């Protein structure tokens, strides 16, 4: 099996720009924790955390899958 591969497009953008975030080469139904952190003005740190299950092909795609639990609900490429 290949090592997990994380793809983020675009890799750098303003906070309100949707991104395609995809993880491939996971085990079918693997549960993964994802944490994203960004520094905002005034030294404020924003953090989002989720747990999400890979699909039957071993892929996580935040543009089409909702997390099992975490900082937000529903599908969100943001």
Describe this structure in words.
The protein has no helices and six strands. Helices cover 0% and strands 41% of the residues. It is globular and about 45 Å long. The mean pLDDT is 92. Strand 3 and strand 4 form a beta hairpin. The chain has 78 residues and is mainly beta. It has a three-stranded antiparallel β-sheet, with no helix packed on it. A three-stranded antiparallel β-sheet has the order 3-4-6, with no helix packed on it.
Key attributes of the depicted protein:
78 residues, 41% strand, globular, 6 strands, three-stranded antiparallel beta sheet
Indicate the mean pLDDT: 92
Given helix and strand content, the structural type is mainly beta
Question: What does the main sheet amount to?
Answer: 3 strands, antiparallel
The proportion of residues in beta strands is 35-45%
The low-confidence parts are none
Q: What is the molecular shape?
A: globular
The total beta strand count reads 6
Spatially, the strands of the biggest sheet line up as 1-2-5
In percent, how helical is the residue content?
under 10%
Span of the ends, CA to CA: 29 Å
Compressed to H and E, one letter per element, the order equals: EEEEEE
The tally of helices reads 0
Rounded to an integer, what's the Rg over CA atoms?
13 Å
Write the layout of secondary structure elements.
Elements: E1 5-9, E2 20-24, E3 31-39, E4 45-53, E5 60-61, E6 69-70
Antiparallel strand pairs: 1-2, 2-5, 3-4, 4-6
């Amino acid at each position: 099996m290949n090592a997990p591969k994380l793809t983020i497009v675009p890799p750098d953008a303003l906070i309100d720009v949707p991104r395609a975030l995809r993880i491939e080469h996971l085990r079918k139904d693997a549960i993964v924790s994802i944490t994203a952190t960004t520094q905002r003005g005034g030294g404020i740190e924003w953090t989002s955390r989720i747990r999400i299950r890979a699909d039957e092909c071993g892929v996580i795609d935040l543009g089409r899958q909702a997390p099992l639990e975490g900082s937000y609900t529903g599908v969100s490429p943001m």
